[in-house]
Amino acid sequence: MSQSAMAENLKLGFLVKQPEEPWFQTEWKFADKAGKDLGFEVIKIAVPDGEKTLNAIDSLAASGAKGFVICTPDPKLGSAIVAKARGYDMKVIAVDDQFVNAKGKPMDTVPLVMMAATKIGERQGQELYKEMQKRGWDVKESAVMAITANELDTARRRTTGSMDALKRPDSRKNKFIRYLPNLTTSRGHLTLPTQCWFNIRKLNIG
């Protein structure tokens, strides 16, 4: 098949959970650029929930798409997404958040593209420790609060990386407080937990 014929026929989907967020706008922008450079059409669809996700896969199949990239609104949809894609003989790649099966185990058979979340978390932990030293806070009187969401793979990796980095220097025993928001009421707005901000506060915890 000639390159011009491929450019005319090849279609790939790019499904994201929060299209209004700059992160996903940037991903779509560069996907479009890759499509122009390599000769394929990118079909961009917002999938804020499970129903819209499965409907989007139906729409992609009807349009003749050969596969899709997806940042799922819920990692637990992984099995349903893969089953739907296989039913249409479509390829699927997860981006940012890894699929998990019904038991909560990572679906390692699905290709995953993501940032170096653990390394980012480690750097964050290192900088937090530097800031604590700069402010003259006594480790024995300080603690780390982690606002996170363990069900999101990217968030979990960043949180773990930060905590591991804070545990290493001088073999000290830091106090950690985890706050796990209830995501069932804020599924469409995950800005807070997905950013995994850590806060060091002076606490009277003895």
From TrEMBL:
Entry-linked Gene3D superfamilies: 3.40.50.2300
- Per the record, the domain of life is Bacteria
MF terms from GO for this chain are: carbohydrate binding
Q: Name one Pfam family in it.
A: Peripla_BP_1
Q: Entry's InterPro entries?
A: Bact_Solute-Bind_Prot2, Peripla_BP/Lac1_sug-bd_dom, Peripla_BP_I
Q: Where in the cell is it found?
A: Periplasm
SUPFAM superfamilies, from UniProt? Periplasmic binding protein-like I
A GO cellular component entry from the record? outer membrane-bounded periplasmic space
Give start and end of each Periplasmic binding protein/LacI sugar binding domain: 10-167
According to its UniProt record, which protein family does this protein belong to? Answer: Belongs to the bacterial solute-binding protein 2 family.
The protein's name: L-arabinose-binding periplasmic protein
Origin organism lineage: Bacteria, Pseudomonadati, Pseudomonadota, Gammaproteobacteria, Enterobacterales
